[in-house]
Write a structure and sequence with these properties.
alpha/beta; five-stranded mixed β-sheet; 7 strands; two-stranded antiparallel ribbon; elongated; single chain; binds zinc ion; 216 residues
Length: 216
């Protein structure tokens, strides 16, 4: 089998169930189609000891030992706890709420914000079936109270879902009386935080505006 695969004819790979299954899974990863998935599988099989085995072990370890922190939404190692909210030495009075970890990385890289992060893991959307509980908004309210937070900066995308989510968060935070602000100027309509350049992100942060607590 190996020699057939080695010569690079993908057709030979297609009758092997295990390989087909792996190709299908890899093709579901971002940015990959079935052609690149086949190339990846071929590379793995041709490097059984250097790649395939360590990768299988590593996937198992990640599956067993890495999970989502139920307090801040970041990823944490079950062994050492969460580096995003538990194992932090600096004390901050701000929390920045983002949709995903990639957004957090963008904001961290731009060095315009020093404070805690809260990762929603998505937005409120009627189509995606995202459950509100999964966005950890209750836990955000708890963090605000527990850590004496003075400002919550909502950095959700300028999409309909991002806006809806921001309003929902704002509403949930009302009883705490914390100052709530949103990134404003600079965010292009339909723009996702992750894809913004530093300049745009900087101006969006700098020009963030307070949100009025309207009674309607
Ligand atoms: Zn955490």
């Amino acid at each position: 089998m190996v020699s057939l695969v080695l010569n690079g004819h993908f057709d030979y790979m297609q009758n092997i169930n295990e390989i087909e299954e792996l190709v299908k899974l890899i093709a579901r990863l971002p940015g990959l189609g079935s052609k690149s998935a086949k190339r990846i599988v071929l590379k793995l099989i041709n490097n059984r000891d250097q790649l395939l085995k360590p990768m299988a072990n590593s996937l198992t370890q990640v599956y067993k030992n890495v999970s989502r922190c139920q307090s801040c939404g970041s990823l944490k190692s079950n062994a050492i706890g969460c580096n995003n909210c538990e194992n932090v030495t600096d004390k901050f009075n701000k929390i920045c709420v983002v949709e995903n970890i990639a957004d957090q990385w963008s904001i961290e890289n731009s060095s315009i914000y020093k404070g805690y992060f809260h990762i929603l893991g998505g937005t409120i959307s009627s189509s995606s079936g995202q459950r509100k509980e999964d966005l950890l908004i209750n836990s955000l309210v708890e963090r605000v109270k527990k850590d004496n937070i003075e400002e919550v900066i909502i950095a959700t995308s300028a999409t309909v879902e991002g806006q809806t989510t921001a309003y929902y968060i704002q509403d949930s935070l009302k009883p705490t009386n914390v100052k709530v602000s949103r990134l404003a100027q600079g965010l292009p309509v339909g723009g996702e935080i992750e894809s913004l350049d530093d300049g745009t992100l900087f101006s969006a942060f700098k020009n963030r505006t307070g949100i009025e607590n309207n009674s309607d």
